[in-house]
Amino acid sequence: MDKKIDIAKFIVNRIDYYIEKSDNKASFLLLLNSAIIGFLFSGKEKIMNHLSISNIRCLEMLFYIVILCIFVISIYFSIMVLKPRNSKIENEYKSIFYYKEIASLNNEQYKEAFENAFKDEENLINDALVQIKELSLICDKKMYNVKKSVEAFILGGIILFIYILVVVFNAI
Hints:
Blueprint: H1 2-49, H2 54-82, H3 99-103, H4 107-119, H5 121-171
């Protein structure tokens, strides 16, 4: 039984590590996207002043709006990574691992639930497995959103690079 508990702890720690890393990546992407959008807003007038033909100006403005939208999409997915999630799994008993269920109990109730969990080790293992499953679902959703945020960021970066090249070559 101790070996099962050790393995469950290892799995929980590993998933927690992945969740933490996805949150860190999302925070970094949020920072980069915000900086780029700030740069785009601050440099918009300078960029628009280089253009003289109205059709090119409309095309460039469209490019500019598309770039902004793509970076906003990347920000959206980054925020979705950082958004807290709660368990959707219902147990017939109170979990001694899940923070929301722990918070709903007073000290005596939690102590009793904790003691009872060790009376039936099979329920303890099942409780840990339910938490592992729930953490895995949360981690999967976070990683999906990190992936989408990175994809939007890269696409936005490529289009921004092309946009800057067009503006620089038109200005020469």
